[in-house]
Amino acid sequence: MGMKEELLALLKDQDDFVSGQDIADRFQMTRSAVWKHIAALREMGYEIQSVPAKGYRLQHGPCTMYAHEIAPYLRTQWLGRNYLYETEVTSTNTLLKVQAEKGAPHGMVIAAGNQTAGKGRLGRKWSSAPYSGIWYSLLLRPEFPPQMAGVITLTAAVSVVQALEKFQVPAKIKWPNDILLNGKKLCGILSEMRGDMDHIQWIVVGIGVNLTATAETMPEEIRSVATSLTMSGYGEISQNQLAAEILNCMEDNYCLLCEEGFIQLREQWMEHGAFLGEQITVSTTRGQKEGIFRGIDGDGCLLMETAAGGMERIAAGDVTKARHKL
Predict the structure, then answer these.
(1) To the nearest 10°, the Cα dihedral for 247, 120, 190, 173?
(2) Confidence (pLDDT) at 214
(3) What are phi and psi of 171, to 5 degrees?
């Protein structure tokens, strides 16, 4: 933990003012150095009140996810124990892929307060207002065969809805990688992999959850299809508790996947799947297909009942509810 983080932790622990001299004595620095660290925290978005003869008091701060802030809620053995938080990055996935190539360990997590070039599926942009959500990526180095890589995103989706469920948030999973709340997108998941036919070198799983965004801060083009916990009436949920709980669930589910395959996790996915039994449209590289959504198979592929009564298996595509009945 750096000096700014230690000073921030001290201010967060205090309800009243902390004198500049007490801070200087505690961290063995000059009063001038204390002022410089306070100024740096203010530049990061923290509102710190200063009163002569009283000292400093933290009034309000941005949504941050420093290691010391999520650590009290983390129950994992290895996921998130190697943890890096950056105030701003282009993309947590991009940064973690670089670290993966350099040999970063299994379970490393990179989180950020702001992404300037967040990524979604199929090269799409992920829009995220600064300090308004959970933006992090997880590094996995699985020993299972590449054929199982496709269910990692589904495993992450199950983990997110299980974590939300613990805060009484009734989210649903939209195949393959979105989490919906009240029919609107709350969370997106993007998995990227390096490997060959016989071996997976690494998988990076990016997770983005909208927490405090409002209609005013969301880009106009997504306001009708996206939501946040605040917009949905769950604004009291702690960012760091939820971020830690997602990691807790993900480690448990990843271990289950490695030990028993996708069987139990598929059952969990089916319990939380959106549009089950409903008519859907699936957009694929070969055009659009319509049918009744019957769930997913053991490989994570979508199962759709066609108008002719057959069952079609789809490995990749985008799902929406059909606008008309078949």
Answers:
(1) 80
(2) 85
(3) -85, 160
